[in-house]
């Protein structure tokens, strides 16, 4: 099967490289010149386990190629996957301009029998709108094209995106007619191992994607609110979570308490869902609460620090371990670490930060703040009054506590991701303050 993937962003690159590894011939279109140059020399600007190798393999095998213009490759394939960004522009309104632009182009040029597949996360009704845009553009060019369109949301997680693509929990296909759905279902059935394929309408597929992220994010806000309550009553959220997580009706996923969710999906998607609801005159108080609990949670460690050090942090030095919004990625979009660092910096603190992958991206975003980037985790804690752990990278789980004590001004750790063991810290006489761990438990 020959396919075109439009957009070499996160979803596009993973989809293109994975389809190529599954035997498809993939033409990936990217109009950002710098990105394209990098891709042509086999490098990517994304830190994602296994992705670079898969791209190199695809290029070597002659199954994956990158192109600046859609028009150059349009005739090469009968399936076109649209993997373009839909960032939030204002109060949750999704910016659909890249998608709309490409659909105009498709209307002017696609041949009969093309299947257009929308992979971007888009608000309810967008797939139908894109179909109209393609049809209108075709009519303006005096063409009558008989194409199909399907919505096929992607459920991959950063850090294990390739694995998620190759082994999805389900493949969702939203299409108005069987012909489109069957074509896409056949592609997935031919290259994935026993995929669970769910066929529905385009608007249901659009909603399913938002619903999934909303439910996951709401679990994070619920466990974080419970964690704060556990702190107040002297309980440990870890014990509580272990109990509720074993109830099969609850399950234990997405119940890790911390400093709030971030990333390019949850914050944007919940905002967009609220916007959609409001457009239809619906108030959605639970969605709004998920969002506001998360906003507050990002300041939770800062509140602890103010209680201890006061409002004026001039002269104090804080070490930060972990900047990326989650481990396994260098993505800094909506990372809670940014909120924490901006708040501490505004109170006059000096900060030394370390992240195994996100240093370069973080440095650009934190220009103008009092942050210095450290080369490793022990350099970061030098002369620090406290250490804050903000991302649960594996290398933070069992640090050399003796070395920390030697380097820090005082052995005090704020663990925002519950990576350290209380007993070990107690034995080493390191003071540990963890999200969700009451002092008396
Ligand atoms: C999320 C969803 O998990 C994917 O299913 C979805 O496909 C993707 O968004 C998307 O829409 O593209 P991702 O943003 O990569 O994936 O990251 P998650 O692992 O879901 O984590 C999101 C945030 O929630 C992170 O900041 C993480 O630290 C936080 N989180 C997650 C918690 O604080 N506690 C948890 O128990 C789980």
UniProtKB/TrEMBL annotation:
Residue span, UDP-glucose/GDP-mannose dehydrogenase C-terminal domain: 319-422
NCBIfam families: NDP-sugDHase
Protein EC: 1.1.1.22
Catalysed reactions, as listed in the record: UDP-alpha-D-glucose + 2 NAD(+) + H2O = UDP-alpha-D-glucuronate + 2 NADH + 3 H(+)
Protein name as annotated: UDP-glucose 6-dehydrogenase
Similarity comment: family membership: Belongs to the UDP-glucose/GDP-mannose dehydrogenase family.
UniProt-listed SMART domains: UDPG_MGDP_dh_C
GO molecular function: oxidoreductase activity
Keywords of the record: NAD, Oxidoreductase
Keyword Oxidoreductase annotated: yes
InterPro entries documented for this protein: 6-PGluconate_DH-like_C_sf, NAD(P)-bd_dom_sf, UDP-Glc/GDP-Man, UDP-Glc/GDP-Man_DH_C, UDP-Glc/GDP-Man_DH_C_sf, UDP-Glc/GDP-Man_DH_dimer, UDP-Glc/GDP-Man_DH_N, UDPglc_DH_bac
Pathway: Nucleotide-sugar biosynthesis; UDP-alpha-D-glucuronate biosynthesis; UDP-alpha-D-glucuronate from UDP-alpha-D-glucose: step 1/1
